[in-house]
Known about the structure:
This protein is mainly α. The protein is 75% helix and 0% strand. Helix 1 packs antiparallel against helix 9, helix 3 (44-55) crosses helix 8 and helix 7 (123-139) packs parallel to helix 9.
Amino acid sequence: MVKRQVKWGLMCWVLFVFTSPAYELGLLHWLDQLGFALVGPANPSKTQTMITITDFGDPTFVHIAAIVIMAVLIWSRHFTDCIWIGIVNLPGYLLVTACKYTVLRPRPSGRLYNIGGYSFPSGHTFATVALVMSVVILLWPYVKHKWILVVVSAVWILTIMYSRVYLHAHYLSDVMAGMWLAMGWVLLANALKMKIKYYQR
Length: 201
């Protein structure tokens, strides 16, 4: 199980690493244009809805949610899980910051709401995927109908990704890169947690 998570985690990071030079070489232009075509056309009511939705993926909001979850875990005396979810969701975001200031990709033109900073990878996507995946991992042993958990989680992540592209805050390759980076991070962090728990037996 640990080896499988390490394998999939590293595979996600390979996909992430491929995305940056592929964008710089112009190999993903078709994908980014396809992304804008799929989410359009824009209209005022849809734009307002997407702004509301995208705020739930804001890293600040997501990190506050992570802190609330940590408080619940402390109250229920799940201290190891509390520390793990904190590391995954709070210091983990430094990965996004480092990548943004390394790649320095400008955001798309025609943005539908005010936002600064760099585009690659999507911080909203990374924060959302990291939180959702870490919560799914914690709930997995206790949920009977696991497919419901998977479907709800996937829909929420894809909705945040959709909102970022629709608002022209990101290219499709940005949100995909944010997803790959977060998935790899969470899977590798969970593999490490499982390894530590194994040696603590």
